[in-house]
């Protein structure tokens, strides 16, 4: 547990350019992607509650040791959006943050339901990152959009519903070869 809020050093004066980012790795996945080289598990969801507690304990130790307030927080993985919204927010609550901090969560589109997004927004999440890394070059060239009648609400629409629409971003590591 934190000894007191005073354990967090005061933020630097505006204009000093000092920033501090926090990366929180959530190693749980629904399945292992063939392109992934990260430390992830697709067969141990039962460890998630203990992992959340361990993250909070590690953050508390860092705060007690003088960790500054974050200017940026990024939840990556794995699949951070697999965690229940309350668990992710409880980790975020442990991180001291400056006003206006950007908090990003990597999210799979199927997890972007209005309740989860609204809970994240209330908890301080300001940005989502939807990856398309699994679209290999062949699949990207041959992919066709679904007919309008079968399309689900777009990521952007779901994010507006959930209130996390600032900076909805689609990330792609695909490079066109010429």
Please specify the SSE layout and strand pairing.
Blueprint: E1 21-26, H1 48-64, E2 70-77, H2 85-94, E3 97-106, H3 114-123, E4 127-131, H4 137-142, H5 155-162, E5 169-171
Helix pairs in contact: 1-2, 2-3, 3-5
Report on this model:
The protein is an alpha/beta fold and 178 residues long. It is 29% helix and 18% strand. The protein has one domain. Mean pLDDT is 75; it is low at 1-9, 138-147 and 165-178.
Could you write a compact summary of the structure shown?
The protein has helices at 48-64, 85-94, 114-123, 137-142, 155-162; strands at 21-26, 70-77, 97-106, 127-131, 169-171. With 178 residues, the chain is an alpha/beta fold. It has a five-stranded parallel β-sheet, with no helix packed on it.
Descriptive keywords:
alpha/beta; 178 residues; disordered N terminus; single chain; globular; 18% strand; disordered C terminus
Separation, N- and C-terminal Cα atoms? 55 Å
| Total number of distinct structural domains | 1
Structural class: alpha/beta
Q: What order do the SSEs take from the amino end to the carboxyl end, as H and E?
A: EHEHEHEHHE
Strand order of the largest sheet: 1-2-3-4-5
For the largest beta-sheet, the strand count, sense and barrel status come to: 5 strands, parallel
Report Rg.
18 Å
Helix proportion: 25-40%
Instruction: Count the DSSP helices.
Output: 5
Pick out the low-confidence regions. 1-9, 138-147, 165-178
Protein name: Radical SAM protein
Organism: Acidiferrimicrobium australe
Pfam family, one: Radical_SAM
Keywords: Iron, Iron-sulfur, Metal-binding, S-adenosyl-L-methionine
